[in-house]
Design goal:
The protein has 113 residues and is mostly beta strands. The protein has one helix spanning 37-43, and strands at 15-18, 21-24, 30-32, 61-63, 67-68, 75-76, 81-82, 86-87, 94-98, 101-105, 110-112. The strands form 4 sheets. It has a 3-stranded antiparallel sheet, with no helix packed on it. A 3-stranded antiparallel sheet has the order 7-4-11, with no helix packed on it. It has a 3-stranded antiparallel sheet with strand order 8-9-10, with no helix packed on it.
Length: 113
Amino acid sequence: MSTIPACPQCTMENAYPDRDHYVCADCGYEWPMTGDASAEDSTDDVVKDANGNVLADGDSVVLIKDLKVKGSSVTLKVGSKVKSIRLVGGDHGVDCKMDAGSFMLKACFLRKV
């Protein structure tokens, strides 16, 4: 039986050691040999605003830049306050509702109030 653990991403057992990491031959995911891979993933869940403050569900934020909404003539103005944000995964990590509608925003354009 192999001492190499299964891939934490795709759960396949076709992994091999490469210096100080394991590499999955099926999906290409790399994880460190020492430490827990789930601890590495939990640090990715932290969403920070433009000033480096950690955001949480229900926080209020302010836009720090005018943002043009793709596919529409709406522009979200700098200084607009957004209440009760919701954090979601992905590239646009903040889901919010404003007067102009519901939007998915990047945290780098927000400042915590």
